[in-house]
Amino acid sequence: MSSRPTTRPARSTVLPGREAPILPDPGEHVVLHAPLNGPWPRGTEVLHLAGGCFWGVERILWRRPGVVVTAVGYMGGTTPNPTYQEVCTGITGHAETVRVVYDPAVVGAGGEALLRTFWENHDSTRLNRHGNDIGTQYRSAVWTTTPAQAAAARRIRDLFQGELTRMGLGTCVTTIGPADELYADFGGPFYLAEDYHQGYLHKNPGGYCNHGPNGVTCPVGVADLPAQTDVLPRRRPSPGPETVRQGGCNDRARARRPRRPRCGSEERAHARAHPLRRPR
After folding, report:
1. Helix 54-62 and helix 112-120, axial crossing angle in degrees, nearest 10
2. Which residues are bridge partners to 95 per DSSP?
3. What's the gap between Cα 120 and its chain centre?
4. Rg of the chain on CA atoms, in Å
5. What whole-number distance in Å separates Cα of residue 280 and Cα of residue 275?
6. 3: pLDDT confidence band, cut at 50, 70 and 90?
7. How many Å apart are CA 47 and CA 156, to the nearest integer?
8. What's the mean pLDDT in 151-158?
9. Stretch (H or E) spanning 278
């Protein structure tokens, strides 16, 4: 007997949100120049990935081959079209999520290459936390839109867990589920975030980011990719005390690291960016 729910969750009565989208006219992606909300080329697939602050996750993904467009938003909660400030309360239940539209001929029918990149570039071993960002909005989750994606996500998560176990680094807590079982009124289940969040690290190259290679590589052969060392192009550091190495985007240089603006301002919660801490 299937354990899948027969009905979707009900709308929140505490933070009921709104019918109108927060970003009614999203336009094009600032880097990829494809429409954030479609239409997209025939044959493309959609995958939703949540792995902490969506700024860094999005930048890693928009640089991957085969990606048509990315967008950041809120998913997994029960408040339709929430604001960032509402999500920060933890009451909406949403996670900061990146919607990835990709070409399966390049990425794999189940999005294998993106899934592998996802797990190799964030800390999936901490429940409701990524670095100094704490709360359910920073949880690790995959929401799928095809059976091939669901199968690929479970297979790659299991392989990644094998590497975590071998290295003594804990348990992967990433949840995997179908997007069509989430609350979805008024345009959901994925609700676009405000414009200033879209392509944030392109608009603000020195902005807060705590994502990058986490030291664990999925076994060679997964998604027919070599062992990963870096997902971002290397750049020559600028001189001066503020130089930050660009190997990943988790700001590992010894120079002073950027701070996140406070949640509830027009930006993000305050915390220091630092390399991922591995559980002992």
Report:
1. 140
2. 75
3. 12
4. 18
5. 15
6. low
7. 15
8. 97
9. none
> Do the Cβ atoms of 45 and 170 come closer than 8 Å?
no
> Which tokens sit at 184?
């979805």
User: Which two three-digit tokens encode residue 78?
Assistant: 């029960």
Contact 48, 190 (CB under 8 A): yes
- Cα–Cα distance measured from residue 190 to residue 176, given in angstroms and rounded to the nearest whole number: 15
What does the alpha-carbon distance between residue 76 and residue 97 come to, in Å, rounded to a whole number? 9
Say how far apart CA 256 and CA 193 lie, in whole Å: 29
Find the helix or strand (DSSP H, E) in which 191 lies: strand 191-192
264: left (phi over 0), alpha (psi -120 to 50) or beta: left
Instruction: Catalogue the active-site residues.
Output: 53
Structure tokens, 152? 């690929």
Q: Which residue has the tokens 């001066």?
A: 240
Percent share of the chain, pLDDT over 70: 76
- Convert the pLDDT of each residue in 45-84 to its tens digit: 999 999 999 999 999 999 999 999 999 999 999 999 999 9
Q: Which of 20-29, 91-100, 116-125, 222-231 has the lowest mean pLDDT?
A: 222-231
Range in 112-116, 203-207, 246-250 with the lowest mean pLDDT: 246-250
